[in-house]
Amino acid sequence: MRVLDNNDREFIRIHRELQACSGCFCFGSCQSCMQQATVASPPGQIIGTVEQQGSASSMKYTLKDVNNQSILTIIGPCCIVNGPYSCGCQNTYTIRKTLFERLNS
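^ Phospholipid scramblase, sequence as received from the core. Prediction below:
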């Protein structure tokens, strides 16, 4: 994904390799199914990653800096499908500094 400024200049690039079973949290902690994206700004200079964490009950992601240190954790719903086949749950996400410290937003 390329993020452009108002002058159509790219200032962030997010790259993710395709995983065979992507998007299915039901594989829980299957390491080969975990998603990881690199974030570069300016393009070509990696500033961090977004990594999916293993969970059979919800979507969890960790934002890490270039030194592989965790910065934030994002915890999402167990149901991310909308439409007539959805489970009816709200798609809300919680951002935490640590696993137990919720950010005010």
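The radius of gyration is 15 Å.
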